Amino acid sequence: MGFEKFGRFGYVSQTKINPLLSYLEKGRIAATKCKKCERTYFPPRADCLDCRHSTIEWVVLDGKSKLITFTQVFFAPPAFQPETPYLLGLAELTNGLRVFAPISPAVDKEELNPGVELNLKVAKGSRNNLYYWLE
Amino acid sequence: MAFEAYSSALDDADVESSEIDGSVVCSATHYDKQRSPAGVVAEYLGLNPQPTFNVEAACASSAVGLRTAWALVSSKLHDVVAVVGVQKMTELSSEEIQELMGRAGDVMWESPFGTTMPAYYAMYATAHMAKYGTTEEQMALVTVKNRKYGMKNPNAMFQKPISVEEVLKSRPVSAPLKLFDCCPNADGAACLIITNAEKARKLTDRPVWVAGLGLASSPMSLAGRKGPLTNFEVTKNAAKAAYQMARVGPNDVDVAEVHDSFSITEILNYEDLGLAKPGGGTRLLEKDETELGGKIPVNIDGGLISKGHPVGATGASQLFALTKQLRGEAGSTQVDGAKIGLAQNIGGIGMYAAVTILKA
Ligand SMILES: [Zn+2]
After folding, report:
1. For chain B, which domains are there?
2. Residues B255 and B300: beta-carbon distance below 8 Å
3. Residues of A with CB below 8 A from B131's CB?
4. ipTM of the complex
5. Tens digits of per-residue pLDDT, B97-136?
6. Is B114–A79 a contact, with Cβ atoms under 8 angstroms apart?
């Protein structure tokens, strides 16, 4: 299976960063780091913007993050309609990089506000799909 | 539909198809059944064998079409270019539209989580509310204002007024945005005829001049954008370029058309265009400064909220409204002595923004 396994409903199957899935399977979330200039990327990417080198290594993230903003989706694309309403958030990780992710339904919406601390954790879907969410 | 807009543009400019030596067809082609629509549009308008092609920049397509035409004419490659913005969205089922809407963001890292167009703008709204105390009632004022002017525009889709109450009570789409915070999808067309100064003076004694063209981009992914997400950097960058080229500032603008895809967008636009200070957009609204008669009337043709948003036609439709204003032909919504008009158009979820300044 390719990268379409990523997310609640994936659209893309072939990518240069498919190893992310094996990290997620092991319960870890990993970023990529350029071996030449050491710039870190999350979401992971295989080609460095700064030095244009494409040799990367994977580094595991601690998942600690601060919420920047969020929304609760009521009107969803067809594949996501059974799960409405659901929460989506943008958070900043401790390394300064940002992550766009669902927020776990276990989180109380009333407690969400820009600035609250959340953890980025691995999540599993019912179709054997893998992703991460904020909880 | 494109023919109706094109034909009235030809009448207005007093030119014939034989004098148009190129056409730029603007549409967000993923919403069209017709593949490569420039082909069929040029044929129907009688614009073969002149060059034609499509320009796509999502909701900013026809603003970018103007930029393209301006470059074609300035370079002297062409003399008279028709910019045809057109979109026929009702051919798609709402299921198909929703599926497309789900892929409005980065399909690798964001769409797999169930993003939608309103969800992205809602996230800017959440951030603006948290930082500046902006309320849903204040956001509703945008819809109330624009609907009021929609009643005066015979081409608008919504011709009925609305109250703050009704906006607040409408069903949630993506919190904090509700149905009436959102502009409706629509079919529509608008056409601009672009030519050089010499020819323009021959054709009309009231030409409208393209004084400033600003265009900028932002990362498509929300995660790739910096700052607290309480404004669109992309608009600020486009505005800077446009003001510089036109040698004017925000205080010189007499009338503006801004991209009110959602109520919150109009508030952010005031701030990003320098019409208000950061966080001051709601104050401008509450003091009626963006009403006809205010300091800077905005979207007094009803905006996208009343007119509807035929994606590819929207930018040209904004420029049409400004042209009317600058020629003193805007009827009951005429801004007295309007000399400088500004149009701002955001593409998609904020990866493109165009700011155009026109002068009488
Ligand atoms: Zn590098």
Report:
1. 2-91+183-359 (3.40.47.10)
2. yes
3. 114
4. 0.97
5. 888 988 999 999 999 999 999 999 999 999 999 999 999 9
6. yes
